[in-house]
Description:
With 418 residues, the chain is an alpha/beta fold. It is 44% helix and 22% strand.
Amino acid sequence: MDRWRLVVVFIVIIACNFSPAQQAPSFALKNGDRVVFYGDSITEQKLYTSDVEEFVLTRFPHWRVSFTHSGVGGDKVSGGRAGPVDLRLERDVFAYQPTVVTVMLGMNDGYTRPNNPAIFETFSDGYRHIVEAIQSKAPDVRLVLIKPSPYDDITRQPQVENGYNSVLQRFGEFVGNLATEKHAQVADLNEPVIEALTKAKAIDPALSTTLVSDRIHPGSGVHWLMAEALLKAWVASARVASVTLHASKPVALDTLHAQITDLDGNKHALTWTEMDEALPLPLPSADSDPFLDLAARSSDLINALDEEILRISGLSPGKYRLTIDEKMVGDFGADQFRSGINLARWDTPMLEQSILVAFDTERKNDIEKARFNLIQQEVDANSRDVASKLWILEPRAVEQQRKDAQPIAHRYKVSMVP
């Protein structure tokens, strides 16, 4: 073997040994997964769970992932009004043959009392029973244990130290340790929200008290932060799409999750057709939802999950108007285009499509909620007929979600403002 063959062999060996370690970890969910969210009233709100569902629908529009929301208000580790925990697991988890199960409990288990050893033991024993029951009945399930979301001891005056959230944090510490012991994944929905509430209080003390208005049930803005925490645990990427163009040539220098065709122009104007593989998050504007805006400004939500970057170099100095499908998006300087504009936070046809998917998701989950409530109780023949009808209607709503999430080509134009 000559020297050059030895060099090639050496390079191949190095690549085989080191390339896996250099690869970024992939998103935890996979095409075909069946996800069940199990929990109490905070899961029953169908907000952080729907946010996760919308993320998957808009980032992976060709996937077929199902989501079931099995939260029941007042539930503890022992169960509650919808039945004891073993019945709940059989009917509301195992019946859906999940591949992924998330569990978030604890808010009701502490009874809003100070730390109490007997209460903690009841919680830890009951939580362990749930985990062992899932792993025994469905050993292949990827289990995600969620540290409970916080009780708001932050935004009220005076701020409470060692209040009820300290009980939930102790519960969360146990959950994290149990996840390690049982080789399950863990997601922390407490600490990131506490950090955001602390920042929100500094930004706007009055409005911050509305983010978790009853101190227990988060509003929609905070639910997005909870979804972010879970998605981060699943190694979600921020990148919706990224496009870098050069105007005067004109040429596409770099694209990620996007296809560029019909590119034409010069240093004063540029047109092209673009089809992105994904959509931005369906986040309303700051003016229409000040609660979400405050939550976003108090966190890294946008940088962590919502980047749709457009960069254009080679434009002459000046102001330029961006339109997409003849819809005005905004006026930007050549330097702003050169640095990069995050289109995810602008009113674009892509955002409109994403909001439509969110609307579809809400409708689908309304159907699921009605069916779920019927099967929680002893029902008569008429109610069973209704539940059966809803069971038929739900897949149709799912198909509408997926249809509305499919990529669409858009016509872009950048032209100098006179």
